[in-house]
Every structure is written in structure tokens, then in C-alpha cells.
Amino acid sequence: MNNGYAGQILRIDLSERQITTFPTSRYADWVGGHALSAAIFFDLTRHVLHEMQDGYHPQNVLILMTSPLTGTLVPACAGRIEVTGIGVQSHPIGWFTRGNFGGRFATMLKHAGWDGIVIEGTAATPVWLDIRDQRVTLRECQELSLWGQDAWDSQLTIWDYVAGKQHYGRWIDPGGRVHGRTTQRPAVVTIGPSGENVCRTACLIHDASNASGQGGFGAIFGLKRLKAISVIGTGGVAVHDPRALLEARLWLKEKYSFRLSDLKSTDIELAVASPPVPGVLYGNWLAKGPGDSFGDRPTEGQRPQACVGCHAGCRARYESGLGNEAGCVETMLCPDADSLEVQRRATDLLNRYALNAWEMVFTLNYIRNLNKAGQLGPGCVIDSPLDFSDYGSLAFVERLLHMAGTKCLPDGTPDPFAEALSEGAYRAAARWGRLEGDLRSGELPYAHWGIPMHFDPRTELEWGYGTILGDRDINEHDFQNVWAKASFADWRGREPDVPAADAVRIVRSKMPPFDDDPRILDYGDHNMYTAHMAKLVAWHRYYTRFWKLTVQFCDWRWPDFINIYASDKTGCTGLAEPRFYNAVTGQNLSYSQSIELGRRIWNLDHAIWTLQGRHRDHVRFADYIYDVPAASANGYRELFPVFEDGQWRYQTRFGRRLDRDGVENFKTEFYRLQGWNEATGYPKRDTLEELEMPEVADELGRHGRLG
Amino acid sequence: MARHRATGSQTASGAIRRREFLSRSGTVAIGGILSPFLVLDASGDLHAAYAASQGYLLVDTKKCQGCLSCMLACSLVHDGEANLSTARIQVLQDSFAKWPEDVSIEQCRQCATPACVEACPTGALTADPQRGHVRCIDPAKCIGCTLCLLKCPFVVKRLTVVQDERKLTGIRAAKCDLCADAPYHWSDVGGGPGGEQACVAICPVEAIQYTATMPKQSLQGYNVNLRDANWGKLGYPTD
């Protein structure tokens, strides 16, 4: 095929040790990534979805899926892969959920000739999957003593095994096809001890620090006794119009990317124009003051490091090798560490254990606060074997992560406190009888679905609403980044690059079909629960469902709403995404059509959640979101556009909380906009048929869940 | 296509550079200006010599961000598909290694005495005078014997193979031609010496540079410091 697809999908039945394939074209309507995965997932599980309340269900299916743009030259897109299945992290049930990760794995999979991998069943003994082009083999872990190795060692072991008597640093023949040769190492995604021990906090790790954290898919790997997937490909991805793709890439470089000869910023941004600097957050950002940088960056020799095809890497590799490729939340564990070196080593340990970084950051913060309050520690109400006397040292971090990743004390003894840590703070709090009270006070800042709060739903409205209407912390910075630019300027005592009115005008112009709503970006108190806000949340769901989750554009670079290199500050979103997509696929997709496709994908996801039991009543925040005003911990003011007295202004929204009835009003507005039943949240047949999903409507109807 | 553009002190035939090279290597030309021509080396042996290429690629392995965009662009512009294995420039990296040893970039050096050209039994590989004496492969003449790969003196062979079902061997050799023969070239200027090279144009951090001046014939001649003060502003070492 000449359209970006490899054309085949692998189907692995671990129970039967059976490897089959099916053509990607069977799901051509669903493009790739998340959409394609959701469609496959629905087909494979539709008859049991109503009883799938947790990722530990034996018929859970885990899917890794690329997009047609994977492995090509599309910037901040070509190197990512979607992971989909029922998760084990969310509460009250494990929703159908997703993650993704970057690096080299996605590209290697495509270049090996596969668009994705569907994993079913459970192996009788631990295995790993060895993909070398078209040669695919399930291998016993025992042969390499792989089970029991941490997430870094297991990759190195597999690298050596695949090379055999050959040596990296020269061309090797992986043995997958005639004349196949490469200089590249296999791309391996693996679990560490936490996954083997089926911890809900377990993630997948690829290379040093590419992680799929949310959902606890590491635990699913472990439960299925799948240690790792290794892939090395020596083929390529044919694209429809190579010239057009090259032209598009150079157009982006010339018009919208950073320019070394004309650096307009040296700070990392979550934007196309960001320079290639590591997004590390070492140090204690809560202790920072106005004007400070949020993260302490190592000063030793280093290079930027990027996923395949990315135009501006967001990580680094260092002269010491400490914290290689780590960024963002992976660098936030133990902010009170004794030194930067301890924090960097903690980051590496986190990746070796393959633990969900964001969850561990919050878990540590929670138990540390309880310890300070005299509630947790040896001999306390919560009698913890974790000694805090050397808190901040590497030894402390090692003990903590060992417990969380193995459910055992350092001497190997199974321990209930360690097991509680392995479940994450939300479930640990429940075990300790503190859940309800700490959610009410906000001591346990888990705003939704038993998952740590990221950006505050009381201020960053679209983030919170998007999360409770979905399945996980959305972790989609699209709008957040725009407002953060103004907030950072404020933090540094500068005027924002773009005044609020201009920012709203530019962003709104890129939001079809709602670009005619003048109040869609109003974060004022008067607009928190309105139909305008419903449109903002809906558009966000649609854009990200298609471009980020399905096509795999990276959240740290896209969309490009406002661009400091563009003459009028107007970014390339709306132009760039379809341009790249069409160059590779040969289609003629318009931007408006892509948003409509996002609506279709969003509705399929919602139907799956509904089959799992989702009802309007589930969709709510933790009590503290309604009862405790949002506050800044360090004087940093998050600014948002607010329309008051006939003008747009940036204003902080700290000090406000959500109103329970107001949120219910918002839900009604949102369901009405979606064409869902306003009382139950169930999809209506008309809506699903309009979206060409009659079989989904039929399945919902069989279970009495049509609205 | 800008195949005949003279740059710097160089003539279209590459004569000045050839004299510079011959002077450096202590050989005496007894042949004409055709490529190759015969020379006597210092030990008195007679062998072929070649007009110097009119273009070269320089890289900075300490600056590279490992995105492999150069490789994808290379295969795309030459073969119409994104393919790391057919890229004429190779970036090797180890996620767990320490900077700067975590990355190496292996590009064709357009050798003064190209072993690949000398090894080619069909005349497919030449220092092509139509393309600024860049060491080029005529795909029609290549039989996929891979002798050129075997004879390339570098550890990471600077040539690769492309699947070609028209060949009895099922493959043909491919190497860096500075995009002189790039069917999917994006620009009217085209590639080759004096033109635009895909890897140079695409590299986001400017870690690959084109030069018309023959580099010093050593690793240090081709792996150079391209990290200027602007790079330093981003917090990266420039020395």
C-alpha cells in the first residue's frame, strides 16, 4: 500500500500461543491508533463488556496501535503508539482506557510491517514477543531469565539476544527477512518488577524513559505473563506523496519551528515552536518563587533527545547518564531529595521498577504528609514499616519504590503496607479508612476516577470536565498551554506575548464547528456551566480523539494555536495536520472533517463505557472540588481568559470551587449537545446511526442502555 | 539539478582539489583528467585515482538529537518511502549510554580513493563527472553483488542495499549521492554539489552541514563542532 499503512495487524493469543494476522483495511474507517483500537476492542469484547469491571478480567484485550503517519517524517507524530484496553487504575471500576508512548517502538513496528498488535489471553508461563520483520515468535522468558529483571536490564538482555553473535555499532541482520539489515537496536517495550507483581501502579517502559503510565497496563502485561515485546524492522513505510511530505516538513521548519539563528525563547513550551530543551522538573517547584524556573536542569554535558521524527526533542541524554531521556513527571519524585543527584537516580529507579510516575509522586506526597502529621509511620495509626528518618535520601527512595513495585519489604517479606502502596494512594487511603475524609478535605487530591489531579478542575475547566466525562486524566495540554504562556509571563513579571482578546480570537478560529461561538473560551464564573462551555469541552474531546489519540500527534507539540514565529502569532493548526495527513495517505481530509471523525470516535468510546455500566450519576468530582476553594501553593497564578465588561482579560480563577448543581447543569448541556439522553447519559440510537454505528446501537439496545 | 556548479576555488572538473589531494597524499599523477586516472603512489605502485568530490557532509555527533529525521528524509527523497535501513546516512544510538558516546552518525565520506568504486565489477559505481564527481551508483548497472559494501573501509559500512525485484540478487546497492539522483527531491534547485541535501535541510538542530571543501581525511575531518553560541543559549555545551 502506498498510503502510510503497513497493511497488517498482529493478533496474539497468549493462552493458545497462537499468532495470526488480519488486514488493517478491515478497519479502514477507523484510521489508526485509538479509533482503530477501540473498534477492534468493541468487536472482540462486545458480548462481555457489560461484565468487564476491571482490567483483570480474563477476556480483557490489550492493543498497541500505530497510525498511518507513524514511522514517516511527520514531526512530533511519527514516533508515538497508542495503548488501549480495560485499565486497573480507575475507580469505581476499571474503565476502557488508553495511554501512549513515544521513542522508537512505533516506528520499528511499522518498519517491521505491522500496524498494530492485539493481545488476548494469558500465557501459562512468562513469555516475551520477538518481532523481526515478518518473523514473529513467542519466546519463553525462562530462556533468558527475563522474568525478574527490571525494565532496563530486560531491554539490554533482549538487545543482546536479538543481535546474537553480531554487534551493535555496525550493520546487523536480525534474521527476519532476506537481505534485511539495520544499524538500529530493537525497540523493546517491557514491564519491570511492578508489572510482574501486578501492581495497579505498573506502567510500560520503552528505552530509558518512554512510559505508558495511565491505566496500569504494566499490570495487564504482568497478569497476562507477557514480559516484553521486542521489534526490529528493516522495511519502510511508503507514503502517497513523498515530495509533498518533505515540503510540508520544511514549511513547518521555516515558518513555525524554533530557529537557532533567531531564538525567540529558550524555555521549553508545549508547542510546535518550542526549542529542543529537556522538560525536566527536578527540584521542588512548590518552593519556587516568582521568576524562578520551574525545574532545575542538570548543567553537565548533554544533548537534546527526541522521539523518531520529532523536530524538537523534549528530553536529554547526559554526560553522567543519570536521568537519561526523562522529563516532566518522571523527574518530580521526591522534591525534597537531598540533592539533584538523588532525584535523578530516583527517576532512574522509577523507570527500572516501571512504576507510574505521576501516581508515585502523589502517593509519596500523601504518605509524607500523613507522616508529618503523625498519622503514618512505625507505631502510628497507620503502622508503616517505611521509615521516614532518612527521607530525602536515595536509600529512602529505594525502599519506597521496592515496596511499591514488589508488595514486599526490602527483605522480600510480603507486607500489607507495601501492597497498599502498590495499589496507589486512592486505594491505600480506602484501606486505611481515610478515603472519604481526605477526599472531602482535599488532603488526597484525587479529583476524579481515583486518579491524581493534574490541572485543577475548579480553574482549568475543560481539563476537569473532559476527565470526568472520559476515563482518565486527559493529560491533553491543548488549551492549558495557551493560558500557561500568559501565566508564565505573569510569573516572570512580563506582559503576555499575546493579549487575551487576540489569543481568544486566534484559538477560536481553529475550533470548527464551534468557531462562531464568541463565548466558547470564556473561563469566567458566569460561563462555567453553560452550553458555551459544553462546546469547548466537546471540541477538545473531538480534536484530541482524532489528531492526538488516533493519528498520534504528540501532546507536547500539538496543536499549534499560537506561534511566536508566525508573523501574526497565528499557529499552523488546522493547516498543518491535514497537510501532513493527506501527503502520507493520499486522502483529501479537511480539518472540519477530522473534527467530525473525532466526534465519531468519542461516541464509540462513550458507548463502550456505557456498556461497561457508565451512567450520568457516575460523572462527578471528588467532594473537595465542590467544597474547598482552589488555591495556589506558591504564588503562581494560573491565568485564564475571562470576558467581563465587554473586554477579554486574563484573570486568575484561584479562590473558586465548583457548584454541584452547576456541574449537573453542565452535564445536561453537554449530553444535549452530544445527542445523548440527558437523564442517563446513554447514547441515543439516532445519534449512533447518524455516526454510522448502528451495530453499536444494537449492542447497547440489547443491554437496555440506549438513551 | 545543480550538478555542475563550481564552488570556492574549485573548477567544474575538480582539478584544483585533485591537485590538493594529490599533493597531500604524496602521489604523482600520470593520467589525464578523466575519472579515474592513474597515479604512482609513494611506493611506486600504479593505481587509479579519482577526481575529488565537489561536496561533502559534515556532522556534529555531540549536537544530534537522535530523531532520525535525516534518515527518514534520505530514504524518502531517494526511494519514496521512509525506511531507516535504506537511508544513506545512519544514526546509531543507545538510550542508556552517556553523552556523547550515546550517538554516532555515519555518513559517506566521498572518499578520495573510493574503495567502493574500485570494487564495483560493472562500472555502476563511479566518481560521476555529471554530478560533481560525487561517488554515485547507476541503479541500472548495479547487479546487487554488494562488493562495494564489503570493500567500504569503515566499520559501519557507508553503503546500504535497496530491495529491487528486477535484480537477480533481489537487491541493489545505494549510497549517499548528496541527493544528486533523488527522484523525490522537493526543490527545483535539486540536490548534488551546490544543491540541497535532504538530511541537511531536514535536521532540526543543524547537526549536519554541507561543504564544498574536502575535509581532512580523518574522523575529525567529518565529525566537527557545529555548536555555536545560539546552541549554548539553550544550555548545551559548545566546546
Give the helix level of chain B as a range of percent: 10-25%
Number of helices of chain A: 22
The assigned CATH architecture of the largest domain in chain A is Orthogonal Bundle
Kindly identify the CATH topology of the largest domain in chain A: Aldehyde Ferredoxin Oxidoreductase Protein, subunit A, domain 3
Radius of gyration of chain A: 24 Å
Question: Domains counted in the coordinates of chain A: how many?
Answer: 3
Count of runs of 4 or more consecutive helical residues of chain B: 7
Helix content of chain A: 25-40%
| Portion in beta strands of chain A | 5-15%
Description:
- The complex is a heterodimer of chains A (707) and B (239).
- By secondary structure, chain A is of the alpha+beta class.
- Chain A folds into 3 domains: 225 residues, Aldehyde Ferredoxin Oxidoreductase,  A, domain 1, CATH 3.60.9; 200 residues, Aldehyde Ferredoxin Oxidoreductase Protein, subunit A, domain 2; 242 residues, Aldehyde Ferredoxin Oxidoreductase Protein, subunit A, domain 3.
- Chain B is α+β, with helices and mostly antiparallel strands and 239 residues long.
- In chain B, strands 1-2-3 form a 3-stranded antiparallel β-sheet, with no helix packed on it. A two-stranded antiparallel sheet of chain B has the order 4-12.
- In chain B, a hairpin with a 7-residue loop joins strand 1 and strand 2.
- Chain B is globular, with a radius of gyration of 18 Å.
